[in-house]
Amino acid sequence: MNTSTDSSRAPIGGSPERRGTNRFPVCEDVRYRLIQARTAKIIGCGTTLNIGSGGILFTTEEKLPIGRMVELSVNWPARLDGICPLQFVATGRVIRSEAQRAAVRIERYEFKTRSMSGMMTAAAAG
Predict the structure, then answer these.
(1) DSSP sequence for 61-95
(2) CA-to-CA distance for 93 and 76, rounded, in angstroms?
(3) Which of 6, 39, 69, 88 is 20–30 Å from 25 (CA)?
(4) Is the pLDDT of residue 26 over 70?
(5) Residue range 76-88: average pLDDT?
(6) Which residues contact 117 (CB under 8 A, 6 or more apart)?
(7) pTM for this model (two decimals)
(8) Which strand (E) or helix (H) includes residue 117?
(9) Per-residue pLDDT for 14 more than 80?
């Protein structure tokens, strides 16, 4: 199994990777909402496909407008002190968008703790 994150290698049949940061395959639930939407509010849920220090690629329910600011909330796979569940909350600009996925360049982020009661409520509803 090759776990190399060398970004200078060219994909088969393609051009060299242009990203300045590495991406890691993280598959977690994500909620998103456009910030200051001029028309109807765009909110939705999806799944992360990969995350790096500079951006995040995730699935969407509809095509997101390029250039718009979006807030993302991801259930982070690691736990604080091995016990407390974390939430990764980021704000960034949509830099690539297709019918069912989008890439966002992260401009600001923070980790928050998730409440255990919120997790149990979500588990009961799901």
Answers:
(1) SSPPPTT-EEEEEEEEEEEETTTEEEEEEEEEEEE
(2) 20
(3) 69
(4) yes
(5) 89
(6) none
(7) 0.71
(8) helix 116-125
(9) no
Output the six-digit token pair for 21.
């940061």
Tokens of 52: 């790096």
Q: Work out the number of other CB atoms within 10 angstroms of the CB of residue 58.
A: 27
User: Which pair of tokens denotes residue 51?
Assistant: 């995350």
Contacts of 54 (CB under 8 A, 6+ apart): 19, 20, 21, 105, 106
- Domain residue extents for the chain: 23-125
d(CA 108, CA 37): 19
Average pLDDT, stretch 66-80? Answer: 92
Which segments of the chain are extended strands (E)? 23-24, 29-34, 43-52, 55-59, 69-80, 84-97, 101-113
Residue 73: other Cβ atoms inside 10 A: 17
Residue 63 has which token pair? 């095509």
Q: How far apart are CA 83 and CA 18, in angstroms?
A: 37
Question: What pLDDT was estimated at residue 90?
Answer: 96
3-state secondary structure of 37: coil
Q: Does domain 23-125 have CATH number 2.40.10.220?
A: yes
